[in-house]
Specification:
heterodimer, A: alpha/beta, Rossmann fold, 2 domains, 7-stranded mixed sheet, 6-stranded mixed sheet, 16 strands, 39% helix, globular, B: alpha/beta, 8-stranded mixed sheet, 8 strands
């Protein structure tokens, strides 16, 4: 292991390179790449790597980037791409196709506000709009987590019980362009951690057709298989965590990361980097005698409903911090979490940092004060922080 | 070794089963089916993988778990056949396999929605054989105009006839300087088989265009498809030629420039009935097309 000063963009590219090389004893590595701010440095670094058995195709669009990955993956190669914001929106059709084809593609997505008008700053709305695409979604808080999650994503995606694509999400600029000391494992350790990819439905020389036409009952069967596979993600993830610890000597973060939550009466729930600021606000509130705690939802798909319901049990008040807006609904995290709250628990949605505004401690303090003082839950609150 | 039918009969080197097997639901007289059968014979024992975007070519092969394709086949999303094929072709290459990756796409997936993907794969000179079966219509969705629909043809979205001409796809592909681009007439088997075999064994991006009669969309007799192609070639409407490396142009079949053939080609298809086509104007358009094509031959 070596400590390197890396941006999260580079951390994910380095991890993908290690994972790609680890499949050299099998069908190799392939990638289709296309630039978009703030992801571009990731694919630039990838384009400067040499692969003993692999190739990076510089394509003309995100739609084709994912299609090239699907071609490689269907031939049994390990695959990686990266995108963001409108790039993901343009890729949309093929994101779904990769889910339907059960291809263990790993994609790093830098969360950035959708436009126009153009905005390059962090907002989770881009990847959350792909929550129904049949991908596992993991949201990161640090560069180390981006590197670790990228490596772990392959082990999870390629597990025979799962065989699903995985999206590794990280916050624009706050992570993508921020350098942090990152522990990068040696190739030998990655080789040992990642078994060679053996795709059960690989296209070879047998006359089999992948895709084609489905009648309703076959679509029902295929959708159900996707759902069964999603059901396997959490138990397999726990195994991947154990293997990760064994091979790399550090813990791979949990699907839901809790902070001082066990004895808390009031919970703040967030995703991505806001969680770091939330922890400082929780500490300050605790010092004043408020029994506050925090949850960070790292795994959004499959949605860890049971874990979250357990974490919310017995809580009086829960504030959900959404860095996204679903117009006509409110925050997406809130919309999924409110059904899990125990009876009598007040659940309030706060949309903060939409479009990338800095969510500072005083914003979160205001949220905590509002949450603790309001008589009942109201409509989602749109907090302007920009 | 292959007398009489110029390679269309089964030979010892042929595939144990055809590319398009029984059980497909293509319409009678479908040019795409004829094209697949020719391709099947041309492929013989070469290892191939087929990539087919959303079109008649994939949905008529039958519903899961059945498939009429007697070769490994991937259904690509509509716009992305050339990109799926790119991944498969590179994967074959890095694994030292001799698999020919063949895109088999209609005109909608080639001239329209797939154009950017096709252009990019051609520019990268990917090791792909791209075969466009052009029925000049969105056949799978019931007959709407595409940018390959010829002027004057009535479709469900141009009920009075299309008022602009079709794209010159070979000129577009040749402008990418691809190693090989050619038109294939299903009515000229010698030439068609030679081109298919040549294209299968070339490296880099190869593009073949196959005018593909669609009795359902053309409102023509299913049995007349090959005869229509013969008329299209005789009249000069469908030029049979090939372009090497984007500049060296070779005309493979000299047209008779027959006015009778031109008139019959349009008269035999219901889609042109409303267009009130002026044969003199058509003849002039065809003449100009040939002047341009012959100038390319001279320039090359």
């Amino acid at each position: 292991m070596t400590m390197e000063l890396l941006s999260a963009n580079h951390a994910s590219a380095v991890a993908a390179t290690l994972a790609g090389r680890a499949n050299r004893s099998a069908r190799g590595f392939g990638s289709g790449v296309y630039p978009i701010t703030p992801q571009t440095e990731c694919i630039e670094l990838l384009c400067n790597q040499e692969f003993e058995k692999g190739h990076v195709v510089r394509v003309e669009s995100e739609h084709s980037a994912m299609a090239v990955c699907m071609g490689f993956a269907l031939s049994g190669a390990r695959t990686f791409t990266a995108s963001s914001s409108n790039g993901l929106a343009y890729m949309n059709e093929n994101v779904f196709a990769a889910g339907f084809y059960r291809l263990p593609i790993v994609m790093m997505a830098v969360n950035r506000a959708l436009g126009p008008p153009w905005n390059i700053w962090v907002d989770h709305g881009d990847t959350l709009s792909l929550r129904d695409a049949g991908w596992v979604q993991l949201y990161c808080e640090t560069n180390q987590e981006v590197a670790d999650t990228t490596l772990a994503a392959y082990r999870l995606a390629e597990d025979r019980r799962v065989m699903l694509p995985v999206m590794v999400c990280q916050d624009a600029f706050i992570l993508s362009h921020t350098m942090m000391m990152t522990d990068i494992p040696e190739q030998a350790a990655v080789d040992a951690f990642l078994p060679a990819l053996d795709l059960p439905h690989r296209v070879s020389n047998r006359p089999r057709t992948v895709g084609g036409l489905d009648t309703p009952h076959e679509t029902e069967a295929h959708r159900r298989q996707q759902e069964v596979a999603m059901g396997q993600v959490q138990p397999v993830y726990a195994e991947v965590q154990a293997e990760f610890l064994k091979h790399f000597g550090r813990k791979l973060a949990d699907p839901v990361v809790s902070y001082r939550a066990d004895d808390a009466e009031v919970l703040l729930v967030s995703m991505g980097t806001i969680a770091a600021t939330v922890r400082t606000v929780v500490d300050e509130a605790r010092a004043k005698g408020v029994r506050a705690g925090a949850l960070r939802v790292r795994m959004f798909r499959p949605f860890p409903a049971e874990v979250l319901a357990r974490a919310m049990a017995g809580k009086k008040r829960v504030g959900i911090i959404d860095r996204n807006l679903c117009p006509g609904l409110g925050g997406i995290l809130w919309s999924e979490m409110r059904a899990l709250a125990p009876a009598g628990c007040l659940v309030q949605d706060y949309m903060a940092g939409v479009g990338g505004g800095d969510v500072r401690p005083h914003h979160l303090k205001w949220i905590l004060d509002d949450l603790c003082s309001r008589p009942e839950a109201g409509a989602p609150i749109f907090l302007e922080v920009g | 070794m292959e007398p009489a039918l110029q390679g269309v009969v089964q030979t010892r080197a042929d595939r144990p089963e055809p590319l398009l097997r029984c059980g497909n639901t293509n319409c009678g007289g479908c040019g795409m089916s004829i094209g697949l059968n020719l391709l099947s014979h041309a492929i013989a024992d070469r290892p191939i993988q087929l990539v087919i975007p959303a079109c008649c070519g994939i949905v008529t092969a039958g519903a899961f778990p059945f498939s009429a394709y007697g070769a490994p086949t991937v259904a690509a999303t509509f716009a992305a056949a050339a990109a799926f094929a790119t991944g498969l072709a590179h994967a074959a290459r890095i694994n030292g396999e001799k698999t020919r990756v063949i895109c088999f796409a209609g005109d909608g997936g080639t001239y329209d929605i797939g154009m950017a993907t096709l252009s990019a794969a051609a520019e990268r000179n990917e090791d792909i054989l791209y075969l466009c079966y052009d029925n000049e219509i969105y056949g799978n969705t019931g007959g709407q105009r595409s940018s390959a629909t010829p002027m004057g043809a009535a479709t469900s979205t141009t009920p009075l006839g299309k008022d602009v001409a079709k794209k010159d796809i070979i000129a577009i592909m040749a402008a990418h300087r691809v190693p090989y681009a050619a038109t294939v007439s299903l009515a000229h088997l010698d030439d068609a088989m030679r081109k298919l075999r040549f294209a299968l064994d070339q490296k880099g991006f190869r593009f073949l265009h196959m005018l593909s009669p669609c009795p359902t969309g053309w409102k023509s007799e299913p049995a007349d498809g090959i005869e229509l192609l013969r008329l299209a070639v005789r009249s000069g409407l469908y030029a049979v030629y090939e372009v090497f490396d984007g500049y060296k142009t070779v005309i493979n079949v000299e047209p008779e420039m027959s006015d009778a053939a031109l008139e019959r080609y349009f008269a035999e298809q219901g889609r042109f009935r409303k267009a009130n086509l002026d044969v003199a104007k058509l003849r002039e358009a065809v003449r100009r097309q040939w002047v341009e094509l012959r100038s390319r031959v001279t320039a090359g």
